[in-house]
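Bug #77: duplicate submission created two jobs. Keeping one. Sequence:
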Amino acid sequence: MWQFADINPAVLHTDTGRSWHSAEIIKIEHPVRGDDTRAWGPPFARHVRGKGTESPGESAYFLSVNRNKKSLALSFASPSGQRILHELAATSDILVENYLPNTLSKYSLDYATLHALNPSLIYTSITGYGQTGPYSSRAGYDVMVEAEMGLMHITGPRDGPPVKVGVAVTDLTTGLYASNNIMAALLARARTGKGQHLDVALSDCQVATLTNIASSCLISGEPDSGRWGTSHPSIVPYRSFKTRDGDILLGGGNDRLYGILCDKLGKPEWKTDERFNTNSVRVANRVHLEALIEAETRTRTTKEWLELLEGSGMPYAAVNDVQATMSHEHVLARNMVKEIEHPTCGLMKLVNTPVKFSHSEPSIRTAPPTLGQHTDEILGDILGMSHGEIGKLKEEGVVA
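Kept job's structure:
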């Protein structure tokens, strides 16, 4: 995977008259198969117009992470492809790649080569295990790093096997660490004029996100306390409980909140019961208290409990599936689902950008691209190639 970004500091948002920062992102893909995630389905959004209506369509996975990008279908196995990437790198602000260390040297696309062409380039390498260390030559997928670096061991039911998180959380946090530090490198470049090589490893980011669990092990010298399901090792009650028709998560994070829960459950006497009247004794009597609570929560539906707890001041939440989340009233009120027009699949819904700005208005500006959708535009408009030159590259299989 390759991506270039050119930062444009003053794109005018015509709806508000305010200027905001954006980047033109060019995604480099294999000219035949494209990004691997294009095949990660079902489900697929079917093509309803243009070429390829007989194909499965665009994978939901690919669509989820590729909006606001342009696709250049290019093979850098040939010298012609390498020259094109050199030209793009010479005028780009940021490059992101995720090949094994030293893989790109044989194509003259390594940091040293591109830094010589563009000393201000911020070259970001995202790998499983980093550019150094005994595991640096290993390929790394999210789930392997979750296992190797502790997350899987602390995830899952108390007496069950280790499980992975439901989404590729290590990939996601690594992307967030990468983007945050790219911003830091841009600020440093504004002062020094120099670009940098950012070495971003899934393994490092996973270790960092163990946060308080890692700190507990380092400070105590003891093993972690294992898997807790939805429970908290140090707070009771703080977990999901069965209702008549589903599950609800209740957070009695201190004695006051526990008291509110007792009142709402119709069990005010639990507040003064010596087995439960402080958090420390509730932790000691966790199994008994949680069984008593669940006996009560099973008497009503989730909706009934939500209505009963509304306005109480105690943290609580229904345990929703993803489809229910996508139609949740708060999700819709926060404009987190956006309908866009895709060039070949027509109207589709995508998850919107989550951060709201007071002056700017980030948005899904363009739909995820089809393979090679912008090849002619990038080669012609950015690199100044003629139609004839582009046609020759397509005949040679360098671009598509």
